Every structure is written in structure tokens, then in C-alpha cells.
Amino acid sequence: MGRKLDPSMRVKRGPGRKARKQKGAETELSKFLVDDEGPKKLSSRGRKRAVKRTQVTKKPKQEEKHQKGFSDENSEWLKPAQRKRKIEECEEDEDSDSQWEEEDDDDVVKDLDHKGMAKDIDDDDDEEMVDDYGADEGDEQDSDGEELLPIEKAARKQKKQTSMKPDSDDDDDDDEEEEKKDLKEDEEEEDTVQANIDETEQFKLPAAADRAKEGLLLMDLQTIHQRIKDNVDVLSHFSEKREEGKERSEYLSLLRSDLCTYYSYNPFLISKLMDLFSLSELIDFLEANEIHRPVTIRTNTLKTRRRDLAQALINRGVNLDPLGKWSKTGLVIYDSSVPIGATPEYLAGQYMLQGASSFLPVMALSPQEGESVLDMSAAPGGKTTYMAQLMRNTGMIVANDANAERLKSVVGNIHRLGVTNAVICNYDGRQFPKVMGGFDRVLLDAPCSGTGVISKDPAVKTNKDEADILRSAHLQKELILSAIDSVNADSSTGGYLVYSTCSIMVEENEWVVDYALKKRNVKLVPAGLDFGKEGFTRFKERRFHPSLKLSRRFYPHSHNMDGFFVAKLKKLSNTIPTAVKETENEEESTKMETAASSEQIQKPESKEQKPASTKAKSNMGKKLKLKQNKSGTPIITKKAGVKSENKKSDGPKKAKIAKLDGKTSKKVEKPVKKQKVKELNGDSTKEVVKEKKKGSQFEKKNIMKKKNLKKRMGKNKFKKLKNILGQDESGQ
Amino acid sequence: MRPLTDEETKTMFEKLSKYIGENIKLLIDRPDGTYCFRLHNDRVYYMSEKILKLATNISRDKLVSVGTCFGKFTKTQKFRLHITALDFLAPYAKFKVWVKPGSEQSFLYGNHIMKSGLGRITENTSQYQGVVVYSMSDVPLGFGVAAKTTQECRKVDPMAIVVFHQADIGEYIRSEDTLT
């Protein structure tokens, strides 16, 4: 049996060994942390240590050997490992109770830089290890003059030491200690009225040799990131923080290469982004590209309501919220226990997975019921189906895409969402006016470089360069012209085109729209989107039309949606301006008359000779083609019931007449002339009525039009057409 | 794109009437305009006349789809109804089957419906009658063929198949390519 505990015989025990050791933090701290600035009172051990420090270095070696060195021949190079815990050794000392691992702390705090300290530690192997939280590194004044807790002071000192890191990494290891010591001295000496201690360390630009070395060394991302931050800081307060003799461009080039390394971009793209954004915004943008945007869905109002859908999805275990005040059909998904792309509701076509920024061009376009709409670059069909639901399955949508593979997803989505008014075709968008035209509205979500959706496709960071951007821009310009030509300017409810891209590059956005403004009779109108940044009206050396500020830009870091650009254009007239702007008024008057007369003859034949004009088109170059084509371009090939033809061919002539004379009287004469010419062809009555109507219409339009409507034709061309006309008349 | 020949029309209407009976005329004469069927690349498309006019401008090889695809004619001239026609079959369906929530997923994967998954079934369903399958919340899931009459369904054991699967909305994900 065990010993019986007799309560009466219990021996009273005083403070034991362990009780002695644990005294409490304050007592320990008070031993080494002093509030006053005065010289530190050293304990006996401390004094010994100080003595040792002043002595020659040989002594530490001896001591080491004596204690823990190896006795064999390897003793010179083989050093005993630093033991982290030295509790056993200091039992005898009074202060041993408070032993902490100074080394441990030092390693954490001081890194590779503090080899000097390590040496000291070696010396004091058998001495007490007191944790002063690094407080004996140097005296430091309280910056505010306030009473700080000792631990806070120590923390401050620690902070200072860590902020020395960026500089010291760049320098040679040999210089580390000395530099650090110098800095310490500086700190001690200078008047410390500093709100932020981090700023005491000046960000030093590494020398060119060091940077070259870095290419070979693998720098860790932490240090690069820190360097980026410091660099940006210096650049934003350049006059105060710059290093003497260093130019801004040097800082910028260092920043550029650091950003490329840290975020894995190619230098071209980083330079472009640096031109677009201010430095702090740039960092935000790059950070935003590293994370995904939230998943958003669009309710299909043809089949359900947002409320009901939200309820059904919540019942399945999806965590969602309405997208924002600006959308009545959007929902943002925070998390979901079921795959959001495979729920029975998705399969039943009650919603569509779509990025928030993709709602915007359709909202800007706002197609009405009963209209005919073209979507030139429709895959995968999100915007097409949104348009169909806004139109309530009335009217007509043509969904076109150049890529046959991706069209399959358009077909799938259209059928799934229950869209019945859509026709899907596979043309190159640039062919479009020829196939069909006269749409009320057109949406062009142009193929682009994808710099706004880097978070979805990180490959864009490295594989885009100057040539890619310019190639995209060229294609977009061609597409936007075709899109404009497909719109019917005289549509009663429409006449709008929305151009959008998922890119943030100015070359693909404002430049393309500006090009369209120059080449066609269109103007920018407000997009109806009340949030988003305005488009640029000037950028670097380029100057755009001032109305470009009606376009909108969206960024991932400011709007939490994919980078996007939306511009809404209204087509003013179906005619295509033919000449360049510079030679506007002077040449007009002289050449008008000749042009007008040739036009008169050309006009009747152009109506009947569409095949001829198309032939002419193909013969001539593009520009001339446009000149010839102006009356024929937007016309549907079917002749039946297309009265818009007449309007279009009347337009330029009327305008010219107006400009020529500036008087209404002559206008009366000219229509008479025209009538005569037309009577020859036998469709007079309609024309007369129409012309009178058109007179007023076009007067208004002429006021708006500032473009030159000169129509020039080469001599040979004119002869050719005359001949054709002659043949036709004889044929009749 | 061409109109259907008489034979093709007959075959197709026969198939459709299995599901919606004589309501086919409701498909053609609609209050909001006349609708018609056209054949393009062996597939039957259902569209309104307005869209028909527009679609004739597009050349045959570039045209991918018009209106709604109802199904296709196989090489041996049999008509196969696709899931894309569900939106038009569901409102006019004569015989319906409701599926319990637990077996919904199974049907959406393409499996037949067993007695254990059967929620409701319309009365007087004859054997091999075309039926439209719904979920308990009245969402159309697809269509199939009744394997047993309603009476038999009551008697048969839970593991027996009561509805043969023909098409379900899961095909939008499983076989996106076959839609075109």
C-alpha cells in the first residue's frame, strides 16, 4: 500500500526551486529596461561582458574551446552547434531564473545581418542569457516624450532594425555590420521627432553592379516587395526622399524591373501600365489582378424572377446577394455548396453565369422590343441572351461570331435560356454590311488583348507585346467601321452602336472610337452608366475628340469587376464621308459642281446598277470603294420593300446642293432636275414625294454634318459608268 | 434552309403528337404571328416568319441556327426530338411525370426513372406513352417514355423502371456539341 497522507503531519514547504525561477515579467524587465536615458547600470555579468568586448578576439576562441570545443584535429573548423536552450547551464546563477533565449530572439529579429551579434553570443555562452527584447542595442529616445511601456520601446527598436534590411541586402555582406553600426550611431545622435520610424531609413538605390549580381542571385519575394514599397514611397515624395545624385529615371527603372519580377509581367506590359496609372493605383491594379473577381450570375427574366431564383438557390445552399443598385437581374455568389454551373436551375435556363462587367454594354445599348439587333462578336452568348431577355423575345437578334467552335456555346446558351428570336451565323464581322444591314442597334464586343481580365487568364501578363496590341487595334478598327455601316441611322427607335472591349489599353479603346468618329458620321452619346471612370481625351502624345469623355472605363481595383471599356455611338447619317478633313471647304466649292453633275447621272444608275456598282467596288481600292458604295452600302440585297434606298442616295446630293448654294431657291431647281432624270427611269411619282420629305430631313442633318461630302470619281471610272448607263438605257 | 417535305412533316408531327397530342396546331397558329418549321442541315428549326425572312439572307454554309432547334432527322429518316424542344413541349404536354428531389440528379445524369423516384404521374398514362418529366417544383427536366401504365406503376416494385429516359436538361452540359 502507498504512504498514507496524514494531513496533520504535512510539512510546510517554502518557496522551492521552481518558485524562485518564475517571478513575473515586471521584475525581470526592470532588471534591464530603464526608463531614463542615463547610462545603463550593468550587472556584474554585464560588466564582465563589457570587459570582454574590449578585449582581443583571441580570447573568445579559447573560451569556446575550453567549454565546448572538439578536442581532435577538426577543432579549428568544426564548431559546436549553437544550442538554443541553455537552461541547464545557468542554474547556479541568481539571474539564471530569468534566462531566456537571447539567441532565439536574435535570430528572429536580426536575420543574417547580425553576425556581429552572433559573435557576441558565442562569447557569452556560459553567461546569463537575459531577454532584453533587444533593448541594449542602443539607447533610444522616446519620440513623443511619452512614457512608453518597456516592451513598446523594445518593439520600436526591433522595428528600426528590420527596416534596415532593404539596404543591407543590396550591399556586400562585409559591409553589413559596419553600415548597421553607423546607422545605429546616427539614430542615436539625431533629433528624433519622427512620427513614423520606418522613414528614418533612406531607401538606397543599389549600384548597377549590385543589380547585375541580383540577376544571378535569387532574391526572395519579400525583399523585392519591400523594395517596391520603398521605391514607390520615395517616388511619391521625390524631393524629400530622393538620394542625392540619383535621377528619377533610375528609381523608375528599378521599380519597373522589380514589378516585372514580383508580379511576373513582361516589361512591355509594365511600361504600358505605368503610363496608364499613377504609382499607387498601379500597385492596386496589379494586386487586384492576382485575385479572382467574385462570381456573378444574371437572372433570366424570360423564365423566372430574381427573387424566386435567389430563394431557390439559397435552398440549395448558395450564399448570394444582389449585385448592386445598378442591376436588377444580377446576383453575386459568395460561396456555394453545389457547383453553381450545374444546378437544376442553371440547366433549366433560369440564370446565366456572367461577369458583372459584361452586363454593362448591353445596359448601355438597351435594345427595345421589336427592334432588330446585331451582335457581331457573340460567343459565348451571354450578351446576346441578355439582349433577348430585354427585348422579351420579340424583334430579332442576329448573333454572329467568326469562330465556329465557340458558336456551339452560343447555340447551347440560346436554347437553354429559351431565346426564340435569334439567328446564329458564322461570318467574319468585317463582311457584315454586305450580308445584311439596316439594324436598329448593333453591339460590338470586340476581340481584344484581354488586359482587363488578367485575373482570369494570367498568360496575358507575359505573352502580349506591342505587335499584339496593334494587331488587335487594327482588327477592331475594321470591325467598328463594319458595325457602323450595319446600323441604320434612320431607324425610328435606334441608330445606336455600342463598342466595348475587355481591355484597358488606350490603343484598343479610345483610339479606335476616335478613328470611327473621324471616318464615319457618328457621335458619342452618354452610355447611361452612372459609375465608371471617364475615357481619356488625351493620352501621351495622342489627342482624341473631347466627346470621348462620354465613354466609360472600368477597373478591377476600383469597381471590383473585370477591366472594361464601353462607348455608345449614335449614327447620324447613312452616308459615308469620303474625303479627308483637311481639305474641307476650299476644294468643295470648286469640285462640287462637277461632282454634282456626274452624280446626277450616276445616281439613277446606281439605283438600278447595284451589281455594277458592286463590281466597281471590287475593282477599286478600299477608299474609292467606299465613295462609290455610299449609296449602296447599308442596303439589304433584297429590293422589295426597301425604300430606304432612295433616302440614302438622295442624301449626299441634297447635302451637296445645300452647301453649294446655301440658298433654298436653288434647291427647288435641283430636285426638278433630278425629277427629270428619274422620270427617264420611270419611277417618278414616289421620288417626288419622298424628295420633298427628305429635303426637310436632310436640312436638319446638314446642319449637324460637318464632314465633307465631296464625291470624286476618276475620269476613267466616270466613263465606265457612263457607258454602263448607256447600255442600260438602251437595254430598257 | 428549306421547308419540310410532306413525309418529313408527317414523321415529325407523329413524334410530336406522342407528347403533346393534338396541340400541335397551337404551335403553328400562335397569337403573336405565324410560326413555321424549316429544315437546315438535317435539323428541324422552329421559327417565326419574321426571322425566316431575315435568315434567308445568310448563306447556307454560314448559317448555324435559326430560332429553336426541335430535333434532327437521322440518316434513315427517323425523327429524333432534342431537349431544346422542351420549352415548347412542356406547356402543352398531355401526360406528365413528377420526380422526387432525390432522384432528380439521377435523371439529369441520363438514367431512367425508377419507381422509388416517382413522385406523381398523370392518370391513364398508357404504356410507351410519351411523357414530360418535371421536378416537384414544376420545373421541366426533360422527357421520356412511360414504361408502365399508371395502374402498373402502383403495383410494381421500387427498383423497376417506370419511365425511360429520352432527353434531359443535363444534356446542355453533357453533350453541348451535339446541339449543333
Describe this structure in words.
The complex is a heterodimer of chains A (732) and B (180). With 732 residues, chain A is α/β, with parallel strands linked by helices. Chain A is elongated, with a radius of gyration of 40 Å. Chain B is α+β, with helices and mostly antiparallel strands. In chain B, strands 1, 2, 3, 4, 6 and 7 form a 6-stranded antiparallel β-sheet that branches. In chain B, strands 9-13-12-11-8-10 form a 6-stranded mixed β-sheet. In chain B, a hairpin with a 5-residue loop joins strand 6 and strand 7 (79-81). The mean pLDDT of chain B is 90. Chain A binds chain B through residues 312, 341-342, 344-345, 347-349, 372, 394, 396, 398, 404, 407-412, 414-416, 418, 420-427, 435-436, 636-638, and chain B through 32, 47-48, 50-51, 54-55, 57-59, 62-69, 84, 87, 104, 108, 135, 137, 139-141, 169-170, 172-173, 176-177, 179-180.
Overview features:
heterodimer; A: 732 residues; four-stranded antiparallel β-sheet; elongated; B: 180 residues; alpha+beta; six-stranded antiparallel β-sheet; 7 helices; 13 strands
Query: Could you tell me which chain pair has the largest interface and how many residues each side has?
Result: A-B, 36 and 35 residues
- Tally the helices of chain A: 32
Average of the residue pLDDT scores of chain B: 90
- Total number of beta strands of chain B: 13
Number of extended strands of chain A: 15
